[in-house]
Amino acid sequence: MIGVSGTGAWPGDAVLEAQTTVLGDLADVPSEVAGLPFAVHLPARGPWATLTGRTLGLLVDLPAELGPHGWKLADRPGGDLARVHATTREDLDALAVAGHGYDGPLVVPVLGPVTLAATTYLARGDRAVGDPGALRDLADSLATGLGEHLAALARSVPGARPVVLVHEPLLAQAVAGVLPSFSGYARLRPVRGPLAGERVGAVVAGARAAGAGTVVVHGGAAWTTLPVVRASGADAVALEVAALGDQGWERVAEAVEAGTRLWAHLPPQRSSQCAGPDAVGQARTLTDPWRAVGLPAAGLDDVVLLAPEPAGGPDEARGALAGVVRAARVVAEVAHG
C-alpha cells in the first residue's frame, strides 16, 4: 500500500500542536493509503531545535557547543547542549501527549553521520568530515545515542513502531570532495564511497539493534548517493525524485529491482486559480519516470511519498501534507489500474 510521510521539519514554535496535527492527519487517511506519522522538529525555535542540534544532542561522550560559525565539538558539555537536551525532552513530552494510545509506525528523523560531520567543526580545526577518526567516532557515538533515543521514544509512545529516517543531504558533496574548507579557499578531501557506506551503515545497524523495523537513508537530490546507501544496508532510499533525470532513474530502477524500496520525496504541488492544487501533476513526477524505466506499476505499492519541506506557516504545511495524501491516491490508481 502506498505510504505517505514527511521529513520531520515543521514550521512554528508550538510543538504539541504540530505533533498532534501530524499524528492526527496521517493516522486518518483514505483506505488505499498508509499514513506514516513522524516525530516533528521545529527549527524556528532556534539552533537547539534544528536537526543538526538535535542529532548532536544524541551523541554519547562527544559534547558539542555553538561557535561563531555554527556547531563544533567541545571539550565538555555546556549550556548549548543543555538547551538541546531540554528541547528534546519537551518534544518527547509533546509526543507522549499527542500519541497517547497510538499504535502504528512512527518515522523518527535523524541527521546521518557524514552530513553531521560535514556541518560540525572540530573543537580546534576544520569540518569533522575531513578527519577520518572524527568521522568514525561521530558515527559510532550516533549509533549508540540513537538507540538510547529510540528507547526513550518507546517509553513515551509504547505502541509506536519506529521507522528511522537518516537524512544525508551532504553525502554526495562529501564523497565527491567538493565541500569547502573553513577558509573557503580549498576543498576537503573526499570521503571514499566504501568508507561513507561503512559509517552510515554503523548508524543503520544501531537503529536496527534498538528496535527500528525499517531504516531509510535520504540521499538528497543526487542519485550518486545510491551506491553508498545500498552499501549501508538500509531498507530503503529516499531521494528528491524531481531532480533525478534519466540516468538517475535508471540507477533507481536497479536498486528497486535489487530489493531496496524507494521513498519518493516529492516537489511542491503546482496550483492555479482555476484548477487549484495539482495532485495529479505531483504524482506524475514519480509515476511517469517509474514506468519509463520499465518498473512494474504494481511496484508503486511499495513506495512511500515524502511531503515537500514545509513553506510558510503551519496551515500551509498541513495543506502540503494533505496534498501529498491526494497525490498518493493518484499513485494508487496507477498501481492498481
Question: Widest sheet: strand order?
Answer: 2-1-12-9-8-7-6-5
Q: Structural class of the helices, strands and pairings?
A: alpha/beta
Low-confidence stretches: none
Major beta-sheet overview: 8 strands, parallel
Q: What is the ordering of alpha helices and beta strands?
A: EHEHEEHEHHEHHEHEHEEEHEH
Radius of gyration: 19 Å
Strand content range: 15-25%
End-to-end CA span: 14 Å
Q: How confident overall, as mean pLDDT?
A: 96
What is the molecular shape?
Answer: globular
**Total helix count?**
11
Binned, the helix content reads 40-55%
Structure summary, number of beta strands: 12
Brief characterization of the structure:
The protein is of the alpha/beta class and 337 residues long.
List the helices and strands and how they pair.
Elements: E1 2-5, H1 15-27, E2 33-35, H2 51-56, E3 64-67, E4 70-73, H3 79-98, E5 104-111, H4 113-119, H5 132-156, E6 160-167, H6 171-176, H7 193-209, E7 214-218, H8 226-232, E8 236-240, H9 245-257, E9 261-265, E10 271-272, E11 276-277, H10 279-292, E12 304-306, H11 314-336
Parallel strand pairs: 1-2, 1-12, 5-6, 6-7, 7-8, 8-9, 9-12
Antiparallel strand pairs: 3-4, 10-11
